[in-house]
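All the exercises in this workshop are built on plain-text protein records. A record pairs a protein's sequence with a compact description of its fold. Backbone structure tokens are a discrete shorthand for how the chain folds in space. Once this layout is familiar, the rest of the handout is easier to follow. As an example, a complete record with its sequence and its structure tokens follows.
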Amino acid sequence: MNVRQLTGGTSTSPAPHRAIVATACGAVVVAQMATTIYLPSMPALGADIGAGESTLQLSVAVFVVFAALPVVAWGRAAERFGRVPAFVAAGLLFILASAGLALITNAPQLLSLRVVQAIGAGGIAVVGRMMVKDLFSGAELARQLALLSMAFVAALGGGQVIGGIVTSTLGWRYGFAVLAALAVVPVAYALRVSLPPPEPKSPAKGTARRLLGDRTFVAAAGAGGIGFAVIVMIQQKSAFLFADGFGLPPWVFGLFGALYGAAYLAGATYVRRSVSRLGARAMMRQGAWIMLAGCALIAVVWLLDLPRAPALPIFLAGYLTATFGQATLFPNSAAQAVSHLVAGGAMAVTWCALIQQGLAGVAALAGPALTGLIAWSLAITLLAAVNVLVVTVSPPTKE
């Protein structure tokens, strides 16, 4: 484990490690909060700007899609100009778009600025992961990615809580303003990381062909993407389920984010404590099975047409179980995908992110078409079952 790839071999001090991991964690927080701080505000925002439920769900989907599409381009920019310049450029784009979203008055503005916001979010998230991949590999990489998952906890739980409280007290516009302000922190922190630009080199040819022909890479990246797709599809529906199905105000929906955060923290902690002993592949399989159990619980609510009193706790139990499963699956799938690669590991991170975000984006685009709750719950359960098959056939690799 060293920082030679980033510093040209001039330093092995733990200080750059801490600064880079902290920057990557900050990127994860603000990128994910672009969804979680937004979820509680969706019904109020829609009523204010005249956007229907399908348009608001589409605003979640386009974010996921456009966070995925440019990640390889961001990776190439990081290779050519350096990690820090690419990170800062993406961060500034995210900040400007978030500030602009606080001023929107109609649905086209919402969708357009969500696209720009997503491009920035995808950039800071993937460049941050590239920095971490430069430092670690194997089980230790999975441990560090689990640390990023703990940062994800702050976004998953804290973002939803903040969004719910801000929407209920100040209004939905202030949620975007808070998001822009928070994004300044990792950008400012990245500027403190003093790294020379990488040596000029011609871009690698055939990277996509090589990676897509690697069964280990494809299976592991795909598993992480399908798990992400399931969580995104649940998030898309959750605000409307709580507001319309369970009759709860935004601040209550926001407070439930603390439960999701706790579930993700438990999964990430489990990974950090156990991955060196169990291995990334075994833990990836465990996560997929746990997600399937959670989705099956969610499906039971609507298959049995349960009344509101038992439906809410069973839905929450399913959501929390799926969240724990994803926290176990995701960092291990990313580590499994790239750790065995001798060369080009950092760029492989960008292709892994493209596959994962892309699969989630496709599922999110399909989500609004699943208007019936039975069809929706069966769809996420089927996706989770497919993921169990994917991780089962995933070939082993040296960790």
Notes: The radius of gyration is 20 Å. Residues 1-15 have pLDDT under 50 and may be disordered. Residues 173 and 330 are 32 Å apart (CA to CA). The domain at 14-194+208-393 is CATH 1.20.1250.20 (Growth Hormone; Chain: A;).
